[in-house]
Every structure is written in C-alpha cells, then in structure tokens.
Amino acid sequence: MGMKVNHHYQEVKESYLFAEISKRIREWQEKNQDKAAQLIRMGIGDVTRPLPKEVVKALKAASDEMGVAESFHGYGPEQGYDFLREEIQSYYKKFSVQLEKEEIFISDGAKSDLGNILDLFDRGITALVTDPVYPVYVDTNIMQGNKILYARAGEENGFLPMPDSSVKADLIYLCSPNNPTGAVYDRAGLAAWVDYARAQDAVILFDAAYECFVEGDLPHSIYEIPGAKECAIEFCSFSKKAGFTGTRCGYTVVPDKLVFSGQSLRKMWLRRQTTKFNGVSYIVQKAAAAVFTEQGEKEILENIQYYKENAKTIMATLDSLGIYYTGGKNSPYVWMKCPDGMDSWSFFDKLLNEVYVVGTPGAGFGEAGEGFFRLTAFSTHEKTKEAMERLKTLLGR
Amino acid sequence: MGMKVNHHYQEVKESYLFAEISKRIREWQEKNQDKAAQLIRMGIGDVTRPLPKEVVKALKAASDEMGVAESFHGYGPEQGYDFLREEIQSYYKKFSVQLEKEEIFISDGAKSDLGNILDLFDRGITALVTDPVYPVYVDTNIMQGNKILYARAGEENGFLPMPDSSVKADLIYLCSPNNPTGAVYDRAGLAAWVDYARAQDAVILFDAAYECFVEGDLPHSIYEIPGAKECAIEFCSFSKKAGFTGTRCGYTVVPDKLVFSGQSLRKMWLRRQTTKFNGVSYIVQKAAAAVFTEQGEKEILENIQYYKENAKTIMATLDSLGIYYTGGKNSPYVWMKCPDGMDSWSFFDKLLNEVYVVGTPGAGFGEAGEGFFRLTAFSTHEKTKEAMERLKTLLGR
C-alpha cells in the first residue's frame, strides 16, 4: 500500500541558473552599494514595453461588456472563441499556410500547452531536444519518465543542428527562432527535420514563440514546409509578439492530418482541453484579437522594432569586437561566444564585477552552452547602449 | 515502431448528455416554432449575473496599469501574486482555517487543476468517485488509465455516501456542496472521509467550487476537519462565487503536511506549475482580489442571494408538490426525484413537450442519477417563477 506518487518528479534537476544569478547579483550589490544604481540587466527574458494602446482599449471594452447582463460572457468554448481563431487563421495566410479553424486551439500560453501535450502520449517515450535548450522541454519529459536525447548545437553548425537518421525519437522539439541562441532554421533546415520525423513516425513539437521577430524569407511557421502537417504540432504565443507575458494568451495548432496508430491527435487534444481546461478569459481573448487590427498591428510592430533596435546595438558592438555570435537579427536574443576562451560563469563574473552588466551564462542551458553567453534585447535603448559601451571598454578593443 | 499515443483516451466515453439535450430541444423547436419564445432553460450550469461593478473597476484599472511602462507587469509568479494569495489566506481564517501562503496556488480554474493534479501520481492508480458524479473526475482518470470505483449515492443516504473501509482507493473525489445533487456534507460526514483516507494513505481531492453557497455551521472547507491537511487537496474557484466562469480564476490548496513516500505534494505541485504553467493573467488576479474588498464582498453576496432566491422558489414548489429533493439550500442546484417513478429522460421529454421547461436528466451523471433530475438556480427570478408555476400545472396538484 501507500500512495503511488509520480517518482519521476524526483529526477527533475532543480534549476540553479536563475537562483545562482540572483545570488551573485545580491552578493555584488552588498559589496558595491555605491555602484548598485549602475547595474544593467541584459539577461532579462521578459518584455518591458507596455501593452499596446489598442490592446488596453480592447481589455477595457471587454471588461465593460462583462459588467452588463446582456453582454456578459460565461463559460466560453474550451478551444477558444471563433473571433480569435479566425484572426489567427488569417494571420497564417500571410505565410501561405491554410489552417482549418478547428486545428487552432487558444491557450493561456505556449508553456502550458508544451507541458500538457505530453498527456497525449505514453509515459516512457523518447524525446529529442537540441542542446543548448529551453529547460522546460527537458523537465516536462523527465516528469513523464521519458528518455531524453540531445542534438548538439555549436559553432560548427551555426547552432542549428541537423537530424541524424541513426537516432530514433518519438518527439522532436524544435524552437526557431531559438531560445537561447537566437538561431533560425531556413526552409531547407526545417525540411530536413520534417523528412526525418516522417521517416520514423515521430512528432515535431515546434515552438514558434519568437516568430514575430523573423525577417525576410525565413519561415515563421513549420507549416510553410511541405509535409509538416503530417508530423508537427506548432505552439505560439502573444507573449513576445504583443507583450502578453503577464496577460497570458497563446495558441497551439494541431493539424487534422496528424494521425498515429489510427488516433487523431487533434481530436485527442480537443478531448484533453474540453476535459482539463475551461478556455482563456474572454477579456484576454478580445485583447489578443485586437493585436490583429490595423492599429494593433502597427503598435506591436513599433514594440518589436524597439527591441530589434537594441539587438542591432548589441550586434554592432560584437561585430566591432570581432566576437562570434548567433541571433539578434531574427530574435531578441544574442548568443555570443565568451571572449578569450572564458567559460560562461567566469565571463558572467567578469561582466558583473568589472562593468556591472548582467547576462545569462550559456552553461545554464545545457552542456553545449558552455563558453557562450546570452544577451537579450528587452532592455531600454539607453541601457543597452550604455552596456555595450562598457563591454567595449572591458574588452579594451 | 510507431508513435505511442496514450491509448487510454480511446477509453473515454463521449458524453452525449448535453449534445442529446441540445438535439431534443432543437427538434422540439422545429416542431413548435410558435412556442419557441416560451422555452425556459433550468438546466443551465453557468452563472448569468454580470461581473460585480467592483470587479469591472479592478479589471479596467489593471488594464490601464498594463498600458504604462512604469506599472506594466510581465511574467508573474506561476503560483500567483501574493496580493491575491494573502486575500485567500484571510478568507480561510473566517472558517478558522490557517493556511500558509505557500500552500495556496492561483489557477485559471478548478477544472484545470483537477485534471492536472493527476500529473503527480502514477498512471494506473485507483480513484473513488461518488455516483452521480461530475463527469470530469471520471474522464480525467480514464485518460490516465486509472481504475474507477463508485460510491453510490441515493435517497437512502441523502445523496451523501459514506466510506466503506473494505474499499481501497488511492484518490477520493468529494464535491460538497455537490454537483449535481446540491447535497452538503456536515462535519461528521467529512470527518468520516478524512479518517478513511488517512487509514489507507489515500488523498482526498476536495472540490469546493460551490462553497460560497454554504450557510450556517456546515463546512466551507475540508480543512475545517482535523487531520484533513494530512490527506486532502482542495480546489476552489471564483466561477460561481463571483461570476468568473468566463473570466477564469481559481485556487488550489496543497498543504505542507501532504507527504507520501517521502515526497511533499506541495513541492511537487510547485514544480509542476513552474514547469507547465505561467500563472494567471495579472489583470484577472487583480479582479479576483477585488472580490475580497468590502464593496466586492457586498456585490458578490447580492448575486449569490439572487440565485438563492431562485433556489427557494424551486424548493417551495417541490415542497408543495411533496417531491423529494436534495440541494437548493446550500447550493445553486436542486436535485429532484422524477414524479410517478418516471425515468429521467422521460421526465425531461414530458417537461419539454408539455410545459416547455428544460432541465438535466440525472442519468447523465451516472447510474445512480437515474430517476432524478437537476434544476438550477441560475435563471432569472421571473423565468424561475414561471417555470415552477408550469411544473405545478403539469403535475396537477
């Protein structure tokens, strides 16, 4: 007897990354109280620009609706309101991707759905992730007792690892533009992964949370690749696109063609969501829909451009210093090589102690992150420029 | 080879209850277009009163905050903001229940957490539910490949089944006030369940979604019972309390004393939520906090009283007709015995065809629901009174 708790939870490693960063900053602050105001945080993975005015307007209008019996909304559809699903459907048409409304599920964010999707599979399957990696992919699989395999990214492949047909996996996690490296797959790269997945009857879990940063002809969605609807689920979010990290809305696409062992994953996900979810707040869905209005699009673009300007400042600095990096162009993340062969925590300490700038050590994202360092574009123009000036001074070039 | 989908999803029975009700209403409407306007829906399980003004005010103020960089909120704590957890902590003190803030987790609703909590346990364990039952308890367990046992409720036990020590279970679902029966356990009843759970090292999943309807000395929380913190997780929601069915906020209490096989369920749940959830919208949490202000409490009480007035109308009618029922007093649900020994679908048809009133057949909630019928208090005063007049006419007493 005795309750059978899921013992796989014990196998999840506590992430010390952000706790360790906080601890080192705290210690530095105690020793440098006179310099505390000069600290610049370039490790932040959260947006800082406020919600667009058009979104705030929609939030307030929907709140008013909820205060009147005639326009009050109770339980909504678990898979989201049609008014928002249709906007997303139209958005995908911009990349020539045709989705059925029924394939689009509104969520409270990509992280929830990336975790909950594992409900649809057996415990104990094999997941392939890239290294470095967003830790959630690893931890959610460990919690299920799944086996994890790593596809190593590095300078040699531009931090865009390609499939190895001798490796067998059930689930394949791809994030493009990537967190933490900012690297983006082109069509040929994604096509190779689609071919690999289809050849072995695997499912790609495609995290498109940063697609709004993509420029030019690079793919925004994996469904731009022929055959992807037969093997991929796509997760996206309004978090980075429209500053919704604290407002919470995203969407997941489960194509009808995803059928395994005779089971439609779309129908299974619909069943999962209708049983274990009650939909996203009506008010928040109205706010998300406002993102797609002409004025909404204009305003979110301004915010994205603001962050991109910061990324340009970082890239120009690294270029002038002759430092290798990925990202920045199609991503709010710049993944730089630590100078002079330093390991990532030593560089962290050096930056903090000598020029009072905080970033994120690459080693925190996996073995292959050692020797690299993540800077983000989510600070202000002023602070980003100042931090880069200090970096130039530090490296004395 | 081939993807190992969770085949337990195939074992979930499609619920035809609400689909069948819709179909019969549609057929009736087609045949009775002249009477369509007279239809009264007493089967509705959703609130109809708008959000309290104080809540709308909070929603709009928080929306404005989000539109300004200085007061913008990005990612919040996955377990919820302290300002809301502290309000809930204070609320429990009204029932003399002392909770640590860390034991309270803000969620987007009880349904999500009731489903997701199964992550903490092995697949294939045994869940005990009462019959009749809220279908979500059954379906979420079937999806995990868990075994389901039923504790039969009926007239003989006032629809409040007591534990049978010869039955072994890992999880025990209790909902009090109950959906669909409206029956409420007293302290002695809950104490018997707590003793039973502790004797066999089981966990009670206590659904308190309707606690705001409880009057007098009956328990609002299972933690009013000594020993419950050693065996129970409690799920609650602002849905029925404050009309949040479309706004989405709830909370789950996982006490620190819940330790099984050396594992703290609170720590496991914290790990689960930080890995697979990103917290509830800041705006919605501010709205939920407004429920606890003096003005907020006054307004939600007015709404609850409004529904209770409807329940009284229903109860008075059934009393005058000499029909057995449970609920109504501490619940928005009245669970009536079908007159003249009718089965629940026959009574549904009779009510619909002869007096144009819709309710929910008890058989839809499980075998033990046969011969019973659920009426809800969520309609307007006018319609509720009219429906009850028609019921009296129908039964000719």
From TrEMBL, chains A, B:
Segments forming domain Aminotransferase class I/classII large: 39-391
Cofactor(s) named in the record: pyridoxal 5'-phosphate
Positions where N6-(pyridoxal phosphate)lysine occurs in the chain: K240
InterPro entries in alphabetical order: Aminotransferase_I/II_large (IPR004839), DapL/ALD1 (IPR019942), PyrdxlP-dep_Trfase (IPR015424), PyrdxlP-dep_Trfase_major (IPR015421), PyrdxlP-dep_Trfase_small (IPR015422)
The UniProt record lists the keyword rRNA-binding: no
Tagged with keyword NAD: no
Protein keywords: Aminotransferase, Pyridoxal phosphate, Transferase
Chain residues that bind substrate: Y16, G45, K111, Y134, N179, N278, R374
SUPFAM superfamilies found in the cross-reference section: PLP-dependent transferases (SSF53383)
Residues annotated to bind pyridoxal 5'-phosphate: Y75, A110, K111, Y134, N179, Y210, S237, F238, S239, R248, N278
One annotated GO molecular function: L,L-diaminopimelate aminotransferase activity
Any one GO biological process: lysine biosynthetic process via diaminopimelate, diaminopimelate-aminotransferase pathway
Pathway: Amino-acid biosynthesis; L-lysine biosynthesis via DAP pathway; LL-2,6-diaminopimelate from (S)-tetrahydrodipicolinate (aminotransferase route): step 1/1
Annotated EC: 2.6.1.83
Catalytic reactions on record: (2S,6S)-2,6-diaminopimelate + 2-oxoglutarate = (S)-2,3,4,5-tetrahydrodipicolinate + L-glutamate + H2O + H(+)
Family classification: Belongs to the class-I pyridoxal-phosphate-dependent aminotransferase family. LL-diaminopimelate aminotransferase subfamily.
Subunit structure, as described in the record: Homodimer.
HAMAP family cross-referenced by the UniProt entry: DapL_aminotrans_1
Name of the protein in its database record: LL-diaminopimelate aminotransferase
Organism: Oribacterium asaccharolyticum ACB7
Species lineage: Bacteria, Bacillati, Bacillota, Clostridia, Lachnospirales
